[in-house]
Amino acid sequence: MPPLKSLEQEFPMIDSNFRRFCASHGIFSVEDFLVNDLYVLTASAEREPISEALKQGMAQVLSVVDRQHQPWLNGMDLLGDAWRNKRVLPTGCQGCAAGDSATSCKIVPLL
């Protein structure tokens, strides 16, 4: 995942103040940001004089991630993707895991 600095030009909320705040928490990349506790970061930001700008920066990082990675709309989408793109699907049901269409474990489109 990209360093936070690489996002600054396109996303002005991710400025040097925001990056300095993140660095004080050991956050230097988007990946670092995602593995940190957002509640702890928010609480820490609220103690800063520029708390609103920091919270806007956090929202901006999350927005960037959300736009780049399609969220799963529901469990059926996730299951369909797993069947198309995965070799093993550990469901606990032998028929589903093997992709056996003769079983009652079928993907049915939702209307």
Automatic annotation (TrEMBL):
InterPro entries: HRR_RAD51_Paralog (IPR051988)
Location of the protein in the cell: Nucleus
UniProt KW keywords: Nucleus
UniProt keyword annotation of Chloroplast present: no
One Gene Ontology CC term in the entry: replication fork
Gene Ontology biological process: DNA strand invasion; double-strand break repair via homologous recombination; reciprocal meiotic recombination; telomere maintenance
Record bears the keyword Nucleus: yes
Predominant location category: nucleus
GO molecular function annotation: ATP-dependent activity, acting on DNA; four-way junction DNA binding; single-stranded DNA binding
Name of this protein: DNA repair protein RAD51 4
Organism expressing this protein natively: Anthurium amnicola
Lineage, opening ranks: Eukaryota, Viridiplantae, Streptophyta, Embryophyta, Tracheophyta
Gene (name only): RAD51D_1
